[in-house]
Amino acid sequence: MVQTQLISRDIIDKEVLRAMGKVPRHSFLPVELWDRAYDDAPVPIGEGQTISQPYIVAYMIQALSLKREDKILEVGTGSGYQTAVLAEILEKIYTTEIRPELARKAMTRLNELGYGDKVKIRIANGGLGNEDEAPFNGIIVTAATFDIPRQLVEQLAEEGKIIIPVGSAEQQILIRATKIKGKLIEEKLLSCIFVPLVRKECDKN
Ligand code: SAH
Q: Can you cite an annotated GO cellular component (predicted)?
């Protein structure tokens, strides 16, 4: 997977490649989907959600140019796979998941794989960020939205970066926005398709 899907494209960050090579992706899927775990594609994880394609996980993390001590918020824990890759690189990772059952399963897996001490998970609407722990050097959003939630921008540190898919339900552009003097400077990275970010408790499905 690392050679054929990541190095052969444009993933060059050594820490990202090391982490992607180390985290067992199949462990985040039910046994009946293990044969699809290392496919060059997203895979369903239940409740209509998906674990992102390996390339997209690596690409989003590379786009943050992480340092070990950075304080990073992930919005959309899902299976916990990307959380584990982030935990390989960082001292600590803050993550939020709005669907309690997915969050509980993710935490169980992360504990079993030894990442439990590094992961601070919250069952909450991550579109509101995590005010108690802000500011963050980086925010990585794994669900799509029509605009960048105001709270996430507010909780970004100066020179912090947010990676977020922005667009309609069917098609989005992955944006990297850097906060410079309080304002966001946006770069368009690639087109992508993510499940939608829940903006209110009541539109979960
Ligand atoms: N990074 C995940 C991919 C998860 S898919 C992985 O590696 O498996 C996106 C996730 O975002 C889903 O689990 C979905 O429940 C969650 N999500 C959607 N809206 C959310 C919100 N407002 N706050 C937190 N999580 C949200």
A: cytoplasm
Mean pLDDT of 23-30: 97
| Residues with active-site annotation | 52
58 CB within 6 A, ligand 1: no
Residue 49 Cα to ligand 1 middle (Å): 7
Ligand 1 pocket residue status of 142, Cβ below 6 Å: yes
* Eight-state DSSP code of residue 8: T
Burial of residue 184 (number of CB atoms within 10 Å: 0-12, 13-18, 19+): middle
Mutational pocket test of ligand 1: of 26, 146, 197, 200, the residue with most ligand atoms within 8 Å of the beta carbon: 197
Ordered by start, the domain boundaries in the chain are 2-203
**Residue 161 is encoded by which pair of tokens?**
């970066």
Sequential DSSP letters for 79-140: TSHHHHHHHHHSS-EEEEES-HHHHHHHHHHHHHTT-GGGEEEEES-GGG--TTT--EEEEE
Domain 2-203 has CATH 3.40.50.150: yes
For residue 169, give the 3-state DSSP assignment.
coil
Task: State the distance between the two ends of the chain, measured CA to CA, in whole angstroms.
Answer: 32
pTM above 0.90, yes or no: yes
CB–CB of 102/77 below 8 Å? yes
Q: Alpha carbon 15 to chain centroid distance?
A: 16
